[in-house]
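Below is a concrete protein record.
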Amino acid sequence: MNLPRHVVIVPDGNRRWAKKRGKPSFFGHSAGAKGTQELLKTAMELKIPYLTIWGASVSNITERSSAEVKFLLKLFEIYARKLAKRKELEKEQVRVRVLGRWEELFPESLKKALRNLIQSTAKHDKFNLTFLLAYDGRDEMQAAVSRIAARARLHRPAKRGGQASKNKNMAIDRETIKSSLWSHDLPPVDLVIRTGGEPHWSAGMMMWDVAESQLYFTPTLYPDFGPKEFKKALDYYARVERRHGR
């Protein structure tokens, strides 16, 4: 079976799942977080080396009700601490990354839990689990442009009468852009899975890395998107001929 190397999951539908059951949104977020653990286990069993999950956009954190955001952040903290204790991380050499503006927008206790998870797995090199938290693809691209501009300033020619920098014509090529992204050490995304039945993009998610991705939209709400549904998406990917524009 032709499996993707890098899969991104956009987990949509937690709140609708809860509403259908007459429950507040909190129940949907809890069910979704629990299911994420099963998806990680399945990805490792299938030997998919890179799995990225979009946990929350910037607007999820800044524009939803304070009660929902408070619950969501506490849920992230609980599961970050649980994940750090899982023996599989060491046994299977799972490296955890967190991309986004979480350092800016999250409370200190959650940031501490995430930093611990990142640092304790930093040397692992078999599987890669990335969470997008307080993430917006436009922020990532803006940060990359700012980083490139800062490099360019360092390579300016010296003032009149001085020696010109050897690197004054710094190339702005694809490698320069990729190396400046938050995702600089992740490979291109092969498959994007969006749950919840609404086939649209959100906030320019990983816009550079998804340039050649296959897209899979499923009506299944995220709390119901278990290993069986995950494998359906992988079967779809295996059947598609990827031409990359050729």
